[in-house]
Amino acid sequence: MAGNKGRGRAAYTFNIEAVGFSKGEKLPDGVLKPPPLFPDTDYKPVPLKTGESEDYMLALKQELRETMKRKPYFIEKVEEKPDIERYSKKYIQVYKEEWIPDWRRFPREVMPRKKCRKADPKSKSTKGTDRVSSLLNAADVLKKIEELEKRGDGEKSDEENEEKEGSKENKEGDNDSDDANAEQEDYDEEEEQEEENDYINSYFEDGDDFGADSDDNMDEATY
Amino acid sequence: MTQQHHWIRYVQVKKALCVLIQHNLVLYQVHKRGVVEYEAQCNRVLRMLRYPRYIYTTKALYGDTGELIVEELLLNGKMTMSAVVKKVADRLTETVEDGKTMDYAEVSNTFVQLADTRFVQRCPMVHIPENSDTGPSPPAPSLVINEKDMYLVPKLSLIGKGKRRRSSDEDAAGEPKAKRPKRPMDSKEPIPDDGIYWQANLDRFHQHFRDQAIVSAVANRMDQTSSEIMRAMLRMSEVTTSSDAPFTQPLSSNEIFRSLPVGYNISKQVLDQYLTLLADDPLEFVGKSGDSGGGMYIINFCKALASLAIATLESVIQERFGSRCARIFRLVLQKKHLEQKQVEDFAMIPAKEAKDMLYKMLSENFISLQEIPKTPDHAPSRTFYLYTVNVLSAVRMLLHRCYKSVSNLIERRQFETKENKRLLEKSQRVEAIIASVQATGAEEAQLQEIEEMITAPERQQLETLKRNVNKLDASEIQVDETIFLLESYIESTTKRQ
């Protein structure tokens, strides 16, 4: 501190000349705020290339974008169920191709799993989740659903029947599990309408919703 | 509420994974304890920007048939050859006049050509180990492919013709229609090449783009003839040199002479002169590696890509900061390290201006400062400060900016589309109405009435929107060209033999 040239006076430890300006020269003002978002540029950008190939690629790009939206790979957002079911909605459907993946090439866990219809939706036992191997054949799936229809309670089998025919059914009941089931039905239905057997009839799964559908049993272990 | 969302999302996640895996955007691997791990292929995702270029290139090389083959492969991720041939034949049949159809054989031939020249390749296949019966099946299949099988086309006898769609099955505008009956599944017939999937070979396209860039650079810098010679040399090296080699195998002048295109009538001496000119050029695209066979020449890809990347840097500086700044940049690049004073002297630019320009470039990281201390204590008064260009880091910085640009372009385009959503939907509905009215035979007056549903200011708005969206899309495509050059250079520096 005492070794300074003078208290409070700025002293550079190196030769200013080296960096390019001399002492006392007017330096640009200090910056007080962030630079503007769209600063004026001295030089305007060069215009875009034009030509046959550029035009063709542009048209291609826009076409690809539109085509992709109509492909089965484009997974639509699941909308919240509207307050009123609109009759017209049934008829404004854009036709989408079906896609059934070659399941041999995919990990098992991403495959659709059969929904284990439980007689009592509230009591969730530890999942005896059926494995997927039997589902690879659509015919098997249909058979299984028929079996479940016989096994499950009447209301649910009705719902399943209706679902298979692809018509909308009314939401019934207002307790949570029914809501959850109805939600499932709706979801599958939207799925069916959207993707027409994209993931085989019953693409829904039960096993891994730990605690997800038993909000009554708060003492269950959750992750 | 949250429960429902959680449940829905899980199913969506599985579906999304399927889609991503199908399109080669996500890879999976089985780890110990049977856990399947998924990895996002970020670079591959970014290649989606380049799809139009891949498809257009194929059109230029293999016509409409080739174009549609590559387009289908890109749109669907992977397909069997039989599926591609059928789909492309159907699509081509749509475009030809009534009564004519596209034969499967013709499409097959083009497919084989694409496989032979490696623009399409086989996907890894499901591998079933010998002892598969013992123990539980693995949670995910392992996929492998043999190097020599990658371009092997299965022996298929695909016989058939493309089918024209009977009526207007698909309405692009989404006009209200009754729900369609499901199409009968064609997969009742056995698929001859079941399990053998094909995908587009992006690396091969990149090699082609690189060659294109080199040829056009030579054409710009020298003349048409030199670029043709260059093109001939590159074509000769296509099969002998791997795509990421730093330079080609040596080519003799005699060989090059023989492989010049048939129409090109230049004498051997003229060719030799051109080759010497190319080899002596400071850009060092071509090097002379020996004297046998009339002179042995190689193409130096590392140097070529570096030159292209540097040219891009220079061009950016010139367009952003002006040509005097570009001159300073080239100077520092050439001399490697320069002091402030030296820059002023060599560039013959007054000190104040030179300082200003150097600091501008410094602040944007095109140029960096190198400290060379004279004394071990690194005292600033006894240290040299030299300006230098670190090409690799400047290129990386520019690449980063390119990606930011693309992201801004996409954001803006989505914003513009969203702002005008209502108007766009209205316009689509009107178009659909016009189309259906026309199909049932309409008079001019009717059509006019319908068209007037869109007012003049609305039309204006739509035109402006279209113009803007086109500009943004075209910009995306062109920024991707720069991205390709910069990334090719960066890649070439990381692979050293």
Topology, pairings included?
The complex is a heterodimer of chains A (223) and B (497).
Chain A: H1 52-70, H2 138-151, H3 154-165, H4 176-195
Chain B: H1 2-22, E1 26-30, E2 36-40, H2 42-46, H3 51-76, E3 79-80, H4 81-95, H5 104-116, E4 120-122, E5 125-127, E6 142-144, E7 197-200, H6 202-221, H7 224-240, E8 251-252, H8 253-258, H9 268-280, E9 286-290, E10 296-299, H10 301-321, H11 323-335, E11 337-339, H12 340-347, H13 351-363, E12 368-373, E13 383-388, H14 391-419, H15 421-439, H16 444-451, H17 456-494
Fold and architecture overview:
The complex is a heterodimer of chains A (223) and B (497). Chain A has 223 residues and is an all-alpha fold. Chain A has a domain at 49-111. Chain A contains four helices and no strands. Chain A has helices spanning 52-70, 138-151, 154-165, 176-195. In chain A, helix 2 packs antiparallel against helix 3. Chain A starts with 51 loop residues before the first helix and ends in a 28-residue tail after the last helix. Chain B is mainly alpha-helical and 497 residues long. Chain B folds into five domains: 10-40, Arc Repressor Mutant, subunit A (Orthogonal Bundle), CATH 1.10.10; 41-129 and 140-162, Winged helix-like DNA-binding domain superfamily/Winged helix DNA-binding domain (Arc Repressor Mutant, subunit A), CATH 1.10.10.10; 203-299, Winged helix-like DNA-binding domain superfamily/Winged helix DNA-binding domain (Arc Repressor Mutant, subunit A, Orthogonal Bundle); 322-389, Arc Repressor Mutant, subunit A; 394-495, no CATH class. Chain B contains 17 helices and 13 strands. Chain B has helices at 2-22, 42-46, 51-76, 81-95, 104-116, 202-221, 224-240, 253-258, 268-280, 301-321, 323-335, 340-347, 351-363, 391-419, 421-439, 444-451, 456-494, and strands spanning 26-30, 36-40, 79-80, 120-122, 125-127, 142-144, 197-200, 251-252, 286-290, 296-299, 337-339, 368-373, 383-388. In chain B, the strands form five sheets. Chain B has a three-stranded antiparallel sheet. A three-stranded antiparallel sheet of chain B has the order 8-10-9. The longest helix of chain B is centred in the last third of the chain and has 39 residues, at 456-494. The termini of chain B are far apart. Mean pLDDT of chain B is 87; it is low at 167-187. Chains A and B meet through helix 1 and helix 4 of A and helix 1, helix 3, helix 10, helix 13 and strand 13 of B.
